[in-house]
Design brief:
With about 120 residues, the chain is an all-alpha fold. It has a single domain (about 5-125), classed as Methane Monooxygenase Hydroxylase, Chain G, domain 1. The chain is built from four helices and no strands. The radius of gyration is 26 Å and the shape is elongated.
Length: about 120
Amino acid sequence: MSTSEPQQIEAQFIGLVSILANSALQRLGKVMNPLTGKIERDIESARMTIDWLRMLKVKTAGNLNSDEDRILTSYISNLQLNYVDEIEKDNLSAKEKAKEQIKSPEPSESANEDNSSESENNAAS
């Protein structure tokens, strides 16, 4: 093994972790997809990619140098916080939509109520 091989392997490992982390950020909708030029969201794929990084941390425990461990831990923590943020946004959005539906019934429902009231009034006359 040449003296540069461990450095090359470290760089490759950090590169792999970076690719996975950036992929998760794209799937969380935090960064633009460079191929499409659009913000795309796929929360389940993001969760799966975060799980892969967590699995790498477990499977490489004791085999990483301090820089590799610090970088991997940092990426995982950052991604988990962003994932929770996106889930909370989804939950808040769903609650707001439910509140709006309660406040204002569907147009077809109110139209049916108006029509039935008119029919009742006409029948009473």
